[in-house]
From TrEMBL:
Residues holding S-adenosyl-L-methionine: G110, S157, P158, K159
Gene name linked to the record: queE
Pathways involved: Purine metabolism; 7-cyano-7-deazaguanine biosynthesis
SUBUNIT field: Homodimer.
Protein name: 7-carboxy-7-deazaguanine synthase
Domain named Radical SAM core: residues: 42-268
Source organism of this protein record: Butyricimonas hominis
Length: 272
């Protein structure tokens, strides 16, 4: 079985599937494999990332300055650049040769649940090799119970109306961007099996707050500390425009402020 990966694939790594040193340093510029989780409850935890290619959404936000801000991983989502296929067994070998003292794997995208069967098998093989804590980063439009059983942490990023792109992608995106039933399935699974989750929202304008509250009213078994609000922006300059209001709404509602630590450390850079 194969994984369809974005161009950064498994990252950051310093060794290939045979355990041989790569000729160039990873995008992080560090001499060691791995990076840190830059967002959410596990912010700062050393991790290896697996970035899958392909997404069912086409997110594009309007900035306070009147411009547009595309998904910061559009190259892995709807404008896939240099994606490639890798056998799961080979992916496991790459991870094994780059593990070091890293105990956390983050499966991201794109949208990982478009490849639910392959993700399930990847997790199964990783956990048979060595104990790993595995996070999935998902837009929460698709729930697969069999795949969810193999995962430890659900990082859900439901997309609000501010994410709707211009035509010709607007209608399809708007139709499928929010799936409360799937979100509730993730929450229920987590509560039933002693796992954790987060609902992570991008703040771009005031209407986002109303939409978040409307969605939360339809969900059960969540706590205030499970709700994260993140400023919109793919660069430090863009983030500065939305950080103040994001902080204000976190404090008003008792939600967590979600930093974007990887942007502070590496800027708008891929593969870090």
């Amino acid at each position: 079985m194969n994984l369809h990966l974005a161009k950064d694939g498994i990252f950051p790594v310093t060794r290939d599937k045979e355990g041989e040193l790569l000729k160039e340093l990873p995008a992080s510029g560090l001499l060691v494999p791995g990076t840190i989780q830059g967002e959410g409850k596990l912010n700062g935890i050393p991790s290896l990332f697996v970035r899958l290619a392909g997404c069912n959404l086409h997110c594009t936000w309007r900035t306070p300055a009147g411009g547009t801000c595309e998904c910061d991983t559009a190259y892995a989502a709807y404008r896939v650049e240099n994606g490639f296929t890798l056998a799961i067994e080979e992916a496991v070998r790459v991870i094994g040769h780059n593990r070091g003292n890293i105990d956390h794997i983050v499966i991201t995208g794109g949208e990982p649940f478009l490849q639910a069967e392959a993700v399930r098998e990847l997790c199964r093989q990783l956990k048979s090799m060595t104990p790993f804590h595995i996070t999935v980063e998902t837009n929460a439009t698709i729930f697969d119970e069999a795949c969810a059983r193999e995962l430890d942490f659900f990082s859900m990023s439901p997309k609000l109306s501010g994410s709707v792109p211009p035509p010709p992608h607007a209608e399809r995106h708007n139709t499928i961007r929010l799936n409360p039933e799937a979100i509730q399935s993730f929450i229920t699974h987590a509560r039933k099996h002693g796992k954790d989750f987060q609902l992570k929202f991008v703040y771009s304008n005031e209407s986002d707050i109303t939409e978040i509250k409307q969605l939360l009213a339809r969900l059960k078994d969540w706590k205030k500390e499970d709700i994260l609000l993140m400023p919109m922006g793919a660069t430090p300059e863009e983030l500065k425009l939305t950080i103040p209001k994001t902080l204000e709404h976190c404090i008003r509602n008792g939600w967590r402020y979600c930093d974007r630590l990887h942007i502070s450390l590496f800027g708008n850079k891929q593969g870090v």
